[in-house]
Amino acid sequence: MADVFDRVKAIIVDRLDVDEEKVTLEASFKDDLEADSLDVVELVMELEDEFDMEIADEEAEKINTVGDAVNYINSVK
Amino acid sequence: MLKGKNVLVTGASRGIGRTIAIEFAKQGANVAVNYAGSEAKAKEVVEELISYDVKAFPIQADVSDENSVKAMVKEVIGQFGSLDILVNNAGVTRDNLLMRMKEDEFDEVINTNLKGVFLCTKAVTRQMMKQRAGRIINVASIVGVSGNPGQANYVAAKAGVIGLTKTTAKELATRNILVNAVAPGFISTDMTDALTDEQKEAMLAMIPLERFGAPEDVAKVVRFLASDDASYITGQTIHIDGGMVM
After folding, report:
1. Residue positions of the PTM O-(pantetheine 4'-phosphoryl)serine (chain A) (predicted)?
2. What is this model's ipTM?
């Protein structure tokens, strides 16, 4: 669990240029991390590459918080 | 200036697409030559491109089919390692008066000429976003601006392409992906050779420069839009029509 979260966090910090402390499981991409819709699309793309998986559009649309992303990845892995 | 750039041109086995592919090869760019049915012609184009000492290969795909488009883009990126420029050129005509136009004539033209641009653009966007660079050039048509009797399907598709160009340009600007369209007027190709002499005379009378365009006139503007010289232009439709529509 921690492993997935750390890897997701690293990508978010790099892509959105935010402080590590702000990236909590509860943090919303759009509200707390100042990501716009295109940033979220791009993050999902990066997560797909990082975890070598495909996230369907319907699933990607449900990802609003960092925790949503981590949970989804854990559920598939 | 485009040396080493990797380009995908759809509908490149003949007409304007073929000339665009050759123009890129002359500039030192590598070109994937998409075709739908004319494999032999696509191979001839590839032979010609290779003579300019660039990489080129033919690739079959139906641009109106998402799986076909995805497979094509994957193959092109696999072979070239990146994709810098997409030229959405593939197009068909099924002319008929509105009153006589069949539903499938309308659908076929919309599917290839408009949906095809959407699918190809969507398929290359992931790669271009990662690169933080890309150029997409859509071949629209002047009739998409002016309208034209007998071409309700074609005109609707081309007007749609112009709108799609603007929206794509706005969505992708922050990722340094520039999206523009060209709107050719009367260009001498297979598609226009089918017109009667009387139709051609009538067309000439509407063109201030009093001559038809050549495919090269279009290819050179496409080359400009793909170059560094056009780095502050996005969302535009450049008319290449001898002044026909202003």
Report:
1. 37
2. 0.84
